Amino acid sequence: MKSDIEIAQEARMQPIIEVAQSLGLSEDDIDLYGKYKAKVSLDVWHRLEGEPSGKLVLVTAITPTPAGEGKTTTTVGLGQALNRVGKKAIIALREPSLGPSFGIKGGAAGGGYSQVIPMEDINLHFTGDIHAVTTAHNLLAAMLDNHLHQGNQLNIDPRQVVLRRAMDLNERALRNIVLGLGGRINGVPRESGFDITVASEVMAALCLATDLMDLKERFKRIVVAYTYDGRPVTADDLKAAGSMTLLMKDAIKPNLVQTLENTPAFVHGGPFANIAHGANSIMATRIGMKLADYMITEAGFGADLGAEKFFNIVCRYGQMKPAAVVLVATIRALKNHGGVAKDRLGEKNMEALAKGVENLEKQLENIQKFGVPVVVALNEFPTDTSEEVDFVIDKCSAMGADVALSQVWAQGGAGGEELAQKIIAATEKPSEFKFLYDLDKPLKNKIETVCKEIYGADGVTYTPEASRLLQKFEDLGYGNLPVCMAKTQYSLSDDPDKKGRPRSFTVNIREVRLSAGAGFVVALTGTIMTMPGLGKTPAAEKIDIKPNGEIVGLF
User: What average pLDDT does the structure give for the chain?
Assistant: First the structure.
């Protein structure tokens, strides 16, 4: 079998102008970034805002394992399959971060014959959106430190500066740093650090904004520090929001590309789902819903992370109502959750499957709490046996969920037609979508609701500092914000080693952060870090470019 990049490089792409025209867009509606990439003007949204919307389908997954589940590949394949069966579909994905691309994950544009292209461009800089986020974030940080250096008229307490800096690479050496060393000319000495750009509040604000001026208002509300008497200091106080917004004037426009089968694809925004809200931009999703019968989007990692945040945060701010959900699973991954090592997942093991399928059952329960019809996409592998497949189907049927076998990795859209038909049927059912919690509940109540209802925890503990800050946020008027949980993606609990469906555990909230501009409070659990590090053998070691410009080793 050819590698993903080899398949992508052999694809016959349509000029992006033709892809845009298939959606009813003119050349005036797009800004070209070469022959195969374009940005869509926000004027399209203003023109179509009053038109009927297509059906929104969310793709999520079981708790991820090293065996892989194929969520992005399923998203791409489902969009291609819907077009094959006569429906007009668009997909929407997040933009890949250079951190994981050069770290341990490789590319993030789907796989096999269900990819978005040009995959090399998408995985490497793309249209520069993430760099714009990095620059806007660090401009704010620079203006903050300059204010401290130039006399500190806002009375900022340097010990209570909460804004860190950002970069789009995995760099553990920058997690904790000291600024301003070398004498008065170099600024005010203080402790700080770097987060990966996709964890930046600027990225979250970009993806939750409904237009450019809404983004500016969100930037104004970003809390960067506190004064000596405890008053929050915002980007608006530093007069930084205007210049930050200017840097984002192109980045806010959704990027239009295509799949291997020329299905239109928006790839826009890239917040991580384990440390941010994990979904592409509201603007891309809402424009796509106006241009197509079906808008297929994904949320990062398992349903306990990406889907929960998509429902409680993204749909709330975007005023969107999902029509159906696809929950992706594999026999191999379920056996891994049941305790089987990765190198033995091809062996039949009904006992491990029975134990591991509890993860799938819990994630089904999680989705059903939101009242949305769900179809399980079971990605097939040659080692799957009929007995294993039937066992999973029976378990899902007992919970009222339909199952579709999927082969979109090997066959593209043709391998997803069963899934497409079942999603079409699911979207015909009434969606009784509801949020998990009301915003007027206390912050701790919202955190505990997610931990107990979605993760299955018995309870929640807080460090003294986390409890103090949650009370402080409420006292300052931020108690009505939704919560964004920062948790390991590898377990339903906050312990990455607890596979399957953990029971009898508590979640510890060790730190909380206020993202007033994005519009949520972040609760950090376990040992989750907002600046990843590189592994012993980074993917960057295998990535290269040949004299003829051909890129190799990207996945």
Answer: 94
Number of Cα atoms under 13 Å in the Cβ half of residue 135: 13
Task: Report the distance separating Cα 87 and Cα 464, nearest Å.
Answer: 54
- Residue 202 CA to residue 206 CA, distance in Å, equals 6
With beta carbons less than 8 A apart as the criterion, state whether 325 and 375 touch.
yes
5 pLDDT above the threshold of 80: no
What is the pLDDT confidence band of residue 107, given thresholds at 50, 70 and 90? low
CA–CA–CA angle 126, 131, 132 (5° rounding): 110
Structure-token pair, residue 123: 């995985």
Q: What is the pLDDT of residues 252-264, one digit of tens each?
A: 999 999 999 999 9
- Here the tokens at position 9 are 């490089």
Which amino acids are annotated catalytic?
71, 73, 94, 105, 273, 301, 381, 409
Cβ 107 vs Cβ 72: under 8 Å: no
* Contact criterion met (CB below 8 Å) for 268 and 254: yes
Position of tokens 């660090």?
138
Q: What is the pLDDT of residues 457-477, one digit of tens each?
A: 999 999 999 999 999 999 999
Question: Whole-angstrom Cα distance, residue 263 to residue 254?
Answer: 16
DSSP string, 59-106: EEESS--TT---HHHHHHHHHHHHHHTT--EEEEEPPPPHHHHHTTS-
Distance of alpha carbon 79 from alpha carbon 197, whole angstroms: 29
3-state per-residue secondary structure call for 158-226: EEEECCCEEECCCCHHHCCEEECCCCHHHCCCEEECEEEHHHCHHHHHHHHCCCHHHHHHHHHHCEEEE
Q: Are strands 38-40 and 30-32 parallel, antiparallel or unpaired?
A: antiparallel
Query: What is the distance between the alpha carbons of residues 197 and 204, in angstroms, rounded to a whole number?
Result: 10
The DSSP H or E segment spanning 107 is none
